[in-house]
């Protein structure tokens, strides 16, 4: 699905930027151009970044050993 029509960036493109370390819409714009033009897609970019951060947090929680009581 297209996220940024100005540069034709898809959800996949943006997710790859986030996976490579972009953690703000500015960093995504620097990495692939999405969000660097009209800015209408920035809210969606932030949602993709937040969803990715949530997935990372979930993965880390799974890797943590259960606290012993
Ligand atoms: S739609 Fe992304 S910068 Fe315009």
From TrEMBL:
Keywords: 2Fe-2S, Electron transport, Iron, Iron-sulfur, Metal-binding, Transport. Pfam families: Fer2_BFD. InterPro entries: BFD-associated_ferredoxin (IPR052371), BFD-like_2Fe2S-bd_dom (IPR007419), BFD-like_2Fe2S-bd_dom_sf (IPR041854). GO terms for molecular function: 2 iron, 2 sulfur cluster binding; metal ion binding. Residues 2-50 form the BFD-like [2Fe-2S]-binding domain. Belongs to the Bfd family. This is Bacterioferritin-associated ferredoxin. It comes from Mycobacterium helveticum.
């Amino acid at each position: 699905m297209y996220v940024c029509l100005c540069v034709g960036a898809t959800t996949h493109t943006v997710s790859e930027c986030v996976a490579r370390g972009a953690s703000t819409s500015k960093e995504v714009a620097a990495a692939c151009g999405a969000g660097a033009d009209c800015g209408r897609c920035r809210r969606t970019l932030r949602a993709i970044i937040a969803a990715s951060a949530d997935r990372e947090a979930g993965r880390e929680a799974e890797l943590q050993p259960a606290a012993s009581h």
